[in-house]
Specification:
31% of the residues lie in helices and 28% in strands. It is α/β, with parallel strands linked by helices. Helix 4 crosses helix 5. The model has no long low-confidence stretch (mean pLDDT 91).
């Protein structure tokens, strides 16, 4: 279980939010929404352990993520809104390298299947620089088919995706929740997930 207690975020001389409290159980999705600049990405990066809150604590199964460190990180997959795609590498190379860095065994046939599931069949060996923004986003999202993590933290996962790709990603999220996984995401779209429990937090006024 994930627990967030009295979290505060300050950027420069501005407090984006304070007194943030929520918990997340297996099978639950948290939809964080709010205007640009309201602190959505900052909140996700705090929950990932990438940045420290001004105040408050984040606990995983009752223990602070600061003390758990690697034991927590191995349970988390984070996809930022930029996707972390290297332009000079192919879709296949991007996915294999990101999986290797995450400690995931990703043989080529498994990676090819994941890219195919996201609609990139036949484009596995193209350099990312020739792919559209939507296709690059699909490469990043294909990581979800390869990881074995319990908590997915996704910043604007549906950006630049067409209707068909949005449906595929929603199905992935639904299956993850059905299997007892947890999801935190930001998106300006409504979330249509047929499995699990969807909760919402609004940042800003």
């Amino acid at each position: 279980m994930l627990e967030v207690s009295n979290l505060e975020c300050v950027r420069g001389d501005r407090r984006l939010f304070a007194g943030m409290n929520f918990s997340l159980q297996p099978g639950e999705l948290l939809h964080v929404h709010g205007a640009n600049g309201s602190g959505k990405t900052s909140l996700l990066r705090m929950v990932c352990g990438l940045t420290a809150p001004a105040e408050g604590e984040i606990r995983w199964n009752g223990e602070s993520i600061r003390s758990l460190r690697e034991d927590y990180f191995k349970d988390v997959t984070y996809l930022g809104h930029l996707g972390g795609i290297k332009e000079e590498l192919t879709a296949l190379e991007n996915l294999r390298i990101s999986s290797e860095l995450a400690g995931v065994d990703a043989p080529e046939d498994k990676v090819v299947a994941a890219l195919g599931k996201l609609g990139l069949g036949g484009r596995e060996d193209l350099p990312a620089k020739v792919l559209s923004q939507g296709q690059k986003r699909r490469v990043a999202l294909a990581r979800l088919l390869l990881c074995n993590t319990r908590l997915w933290i996704l910043d604007e996962p549906f950006t630049a995706l067409d209707v068909a790709a949005v449906g595929v990603v929603q199905d992935l999220l639904s299956q993850h929740l059905h299997n007892g996984g947890m999801v935190i995401l930001t998106t300006h779209q409504e979330v249509d997930i047929p499995a699990g429990t969807v909760r919402r937090i609004h940042l800003g006024l």
